[in-house]
Amino acid sequence: MKKLINIWRILAALISGALLAFCYPKFNVGAFIWIWPVPLLLALWTLKSKKRKYLRGFGLGYLSGLIFFLINLSWLHHIHFIACLLLSFFLAGYFAIWGGFAATIGVPKKDVSTLAESNSYFSLKAAFLNGSAWCGLEWIRGWLLTGFPWNGLGVGLANDLVMVQTADIIGVTGISFILIFCSTIITSLLLRLPYEIRNSSLKAHPDFIVGVTLIIIIFFYGTHRLTELSEDEEIEIRTLLVQGGINQDEKWNPESAKKIYKRYWDMTTPYLKLQEANFDLVVWPESSLPYSLHDRQTQTYLNKILSIDDYELVLGLNERIPQEGIYNSIVKLRNNSTNYSSYRKTHLVPFGEYVPFRKSIPFIEKIAANSLGVDFQPGDKLYPLDMELPEPYQIIPLVCFEDTFGSLAREFISKSPQLIINVTNDGWFKQSAASEQHFINSIFRCIELRRPMIRCANTGMSCLIDDCGSLYDRSLRHQGGERLIYGKERSNTFITGTLPETIRIKKTPKITLYTRFGDSFSISLGMIALLTLCLRIFKTLRKN
After folding, report:
1. 318: which strand partners?
2. Helix and strand numbers, DSSP H then E, in the chain
3. Second label for 445, Cα 20 to 30 Å away, from 107, 273, 481, 537?
4. DSSP state of 154
């Protein structure tokens, strides 16, 4: 009998992890985001052994997290299967800590036998504490060991833009609190209702009313944000996005250099030569050209293409600086290759752009020499780049997965007209879910900061996103269609293509609460959960 009980708990944990994975691309079953923890919480709350409850909760949480990340990050096998395993095993630890917390402190009643008799007060208390613990752990995941905030719980709601507009107040991690809060109340109700029905003692459930009220408030706030049409003055920027679709095997092959230069020339110049087009901005993806900015061949090429018309070119390029090293940069040019400004990527990808400890540990250096010959250097300055056409504004430059870090993006905010530009490759992961997952993470920067975004990928999802996270131009009341590069089918974005469009930015943009205070909401909740944990440990030690 005990074996059967243990098996159902393990199955419950695995089901929860799988349900959560289905909320994200490539599955996109967003409705599961509200109920995924229910099987896991039922398994955690009905653990009878008091002595090892935390350890068992830790184990069940770990299983749930492991199955989630193994499914969710399966595209990492295109880099290396071991990378997928190692990262999944590490990240599952956050689920494990939460599982231990929810099994001990985040349970409505300590005594399992009276769990069904708990009232709304205990349910709300458990919901608040579980949500706080999850929120705090997600915030830690965003910076610990350089951070990996990819696919936090709130990101699973990305396809329901109405319900994520509060990100401009509490950030995407704050939305995760709301989801855990509501799912905890649902779990508590599932335990109490059968007991009340059996005993013919149905009661009012204020906790359920609180949860529904919270959702209604969020719904109306989101509806207001999505339907309001701005009366602020705007700058209209005529833009051309170019998605080169360069195969990753060719990208750094010297024999393919001429082909790459020609492709961007052939895809860009026909638009520049159109008299009626009059583009202000052309955007190419991360590391779009095979040689560095200061290479003679690159400069000759850029001088030639910049002389065709008066416009600004923003592209991803490597900068090779003597005595310093190589930087992964966003470069803005106008008229010629010497009239430029650049932002050097500050948040590098471990084992992708640099190898940690390679200089201090000889064994790692031997491995690194084969996998990554030279480390990129991190930039040390965070500043927007000034633009001139059609009138002065600023761009917030984010390279590759820097657009998944809200704490980083907010550092660029000023009171000037601003536009986020993210250049990325995503070709490493071929035609997998990685590019769409990257995209849904990035839209939260638009909502949190209330700044529109241009995303330009080598392959994946190149698009324009407004300040509510929508691909549509809402000033046209959705009549213009999605501003996204795709093939004959909407689902096929892995193509070589262009997107000539107009993006609008406010001349006097507002500063959001998230911009002012960052992740203070999540940090505060995390501190409350930590304080509650410390008090419980202190009481237990004192009692013993």
Report:
1. 328
2. 15, 11
3. 481
4. G
